[in-house]
Amino acid sequence: MTNCNLNLSQFLMIGLPGFVLNDETLLNITNCGICNFILFKRNVLHHNQLKLLCTQLKEACKNAGLPPPIIAVDQEGGEVQRLGPPRWPKLISNREVGRQLNPISAAQRQATEAALALKDCGIPLNLAPVLDIYRGSQETLLQERSYGSDERLVADCGTAYIGTLQSHGIAATAKHFPGIGSVTTDPHHTRPVVPAELSLESELLPFIEAIDANVAAMMTSHVVYEALDSGVPATFSYKIAHELLRERLGFKGILLTDDLEMGGIHTMDHITDAGIRAFQAGHDLLLVCHHQDQALDIIAALELELKQGRIPLERIAESARRLQRFRERYCSDDHAQNERLDTEDPAS
Questions:
Q1: Which of 23, 268, 281, 306 has its CB surrounded by the most CB atoms within 10 Å?
Q2: What's the order of all strands across the beta sheet hosting 12-15?
Q3: Is the backbone of residue 65 left (phi > 0), alpha (psi -120 to 50) or beta?
Q4: Hey, what long-range contacts does 236-243 have (CB within 8 A, 24 or more apart)?
């Protein structure tokens, strides 16, 4: 696995089944070149176990000649906190942050506590903060995960969180672009549609300011935004992922899909088609959170697309460059270099 730019496995991020580096995952690292991982509560027992698991992932990638792995976790706060009590401090939810007398300070404390826990365990990427604006009509899942119903409040809390988290050397992820504030159904189960007559102008503000704050990563949603790309979920939309996010708004970081095994995708699209379409739309990391064989199917499909000339080499090089820059900044043990990079604007 010496030519990492042509290792299409580097564009997958997979889930693990348990508390240890199991044989299936080790084989997929060694033989297939997978080098990105997402952790859930099923992977977290206690501090020493989690730290050992992350160390094992890093050593396995190094032994396979792969770059340092990008290890991610959802450490938002409230109910979405993979490293939680009694082993780690309980983080207040975004909703609670937004209701504080000084929500900016509360967001900074929330980010600091998350960063210290992740840094100690060797996890460089937090899939937070949620920048969706609560509109009062969604299921309770988003209600607790949103800073509030005012776009200015959400933007201010979000940028405070991002700046604080990244100052500790942990990358932040703004999600779920371009905003699911008007969604009334859960993309974990079905594919929501935002009607064309609903404006996304206010929904975009927190993401625009996150970009200005040099957020390291963003995540799209499996939602269809009729005003932006009729009938096409953001996961598959070149208009949203590339033309809007990268060209118009100037985002330079890495772009992740939400889990491709969610109902909003797998009930309507085959996993290999979903992976190809998401990559072609402009995503750098394709998340497959439960079944590793599904990730291998996507890799094989991407390799076939490349062989048949349907994925340009430059498209692969773009994402490879973005992932390399991310690793240099957040996955390197050279803290001096990380601090230097923190003062620079990320390259395009």
A1: 281
A2: 125-126, 70-73, 36-39, 12-15, 286-288
A3: left
A4: 236/274, 236/277, 236/278, 236/281, 237/281, 238/280, 238/281, 238/282, 240/177, 240/178, 240/281, 241/281, 241/282, 241/283, 242/281, 242/282
pLDDT in tens, 51-75: 999 999 999 999 999 999 999 999 9
Identity of residue 109: R
Determine the Cα–Cα distance for residues 109 and 111; give it in Å rounded to an integer. Answer: 5
- Burial of residue 309 (CB within 10 Å: 0-12, 13-18, 19+) is exposed
- Can you tell me the distance from the alpha carbon of 258 to that of 275, in angstroms, rounded to the nearest whole number? 11
Domains of the chain from N-terminus onward: 4-332 (3.20.20.300)
Task: Compute the Cα dihedral for 186, 199, 172, 104 and give only its sign.
Answer: negative
Between CA 171 and CA 108 the distance in angstroms is 14
Residue-wise DSSP of 214-277: T-SEEEE-S-EETTTSTT-BGGG-HIIIIIIIIIIT---SEEE---TTSHHHHTTS-HHHHHHH
C-alpha to C-alpha distance for 51 and 161, rounded to whole angstroms:
24
Q: Is 137 exposed, middle or buried (0-12, 13-18, 19+ CB in 10 A)?
A: exposed
What is the average per-residue pLDDT within 209-214? 98
Confidence of residue 3 (pLDDT cuts 50, 70, 90): very low
